Amino acid sequence: MKTFLTTILLSLTAILSSKAASYEVPLIQNVQAYESLLLDGAWNYIVDVQEEGYYDYRMNPTRWGFFQNAKPQKPEDLIEYDFDKSPTMKIPGDWNTQDERLFFYEGTVWFKKSFQAAPMKGLRTLL
Question: Number of folded domains in the chain?
Fold first, then answer.
């Protein structure tokens, strides 16, 4: 059974550019002293049965996947997903028991949660 953590990490890996992931960040100390924002709760999700959220038909990474969260600008735009209208799931948790259609599912599921963050100049913001 896949866990949420594995799926979200795979999705975040697709989003990160090689430049942003190429330098080492020192370990965080005294975590309790930092201001934090809990991201648990209801997350929108889309089940990606055909693996089209990140790959094209030849299984090559694409630049127009679900991670863009694109919105159609014209009626002829070929965008067939909408995170804002998709069902929600409680995170942390597993999808296998929260949606009966996903009980035996072992593929990709994309999650989205919107939140406001205000990075302060001169300070690092960690996600």
Answer: 1
